[in-house]
Amino acid sequence: MSNSETPNSKLIGQPGSRWKLLTPALILDLDVLEANIAAMAAWAKEGGFALRPHGKSHKSPDIARRQAAAGAVGLCCASLREAQVMAAHDIKGLLITTPLAPGKAPLVIDLIKTGGDVAVVADHAELVAAYGAAAAAAGVSLDVFVDLDVGLGRTGTPSADVAIELAGQISAHPALNYAGVQGYMGHLQHVDNHAERRGRLDTDTADLQAKVDALIKANLPPPVVSGGGTGTHRLDAEYGSLGEFQVGSYLFMDVQYLTVQQSAADDKPYGTSLFVQTSVVNINHPGYAVTDAGLKSFATDGPFPIIACGAPAGASYRYMGDEHGAIDYGKASDRLGLGDKVECIAPHCDPNVNLFNHYHVVRGDTLVEIWPVAARGNS
Question: Which terminus of the chain is more exposed, N or C, with fewer CB under 10 A?
Answer without folding.
Answer: N
